[in-house]
Amino acid sequence: MSVLVLGVVPLLVLAPYLIYRIATVGQAAILPDAIKSDKLLIFYSVIGIIPAHLLTLYLAYLVVSEGGRLPFWKTIRWEWPRETSPTGACSPVRSWRFLAQRR
Description:
By secondary structure, this protein is mainly alpha-helical. The protein folds into two domains: 1-70, no CATH class; 71-103, no CATH class. 71% of the residues lie in helices and 0% in strands. It has helices spanning 2-24, 32-37, 39-47, 49-64, 72-75, 86-89, 92-102. 1% of the residues are buried.
C-alpha cells in the first residue's frame, strides 16, 4: 500500500505543473532530457513525497486503531513499563537498571 501511495501522490502533485509546462512549451516539455533538466519538476516531485508519507501514516493509524475506535499507542504497545516513568527513564542509573531487569 505504501509503495502505491508513494507512486501515485507525487504524480498528483506534479500533474498541474506538467499540464502548465505542456501548455506553455508544448510536447517538448515531457521529453526525457527536458524532464531530467527541469529543476522545478524535481522540486515538486520531492515535495510530493511529504503528503505521500503523511497519507501512509494516516492509513496505518486507521488500520491499527480500527478506524479510530481503539487507542493507537496502546494498540501497538508503545507505553512506559509500569515501574518506569518518563522522567525516571532519563536517569542513567535507572536506565541501566531497567535494561538489567529485562535480561
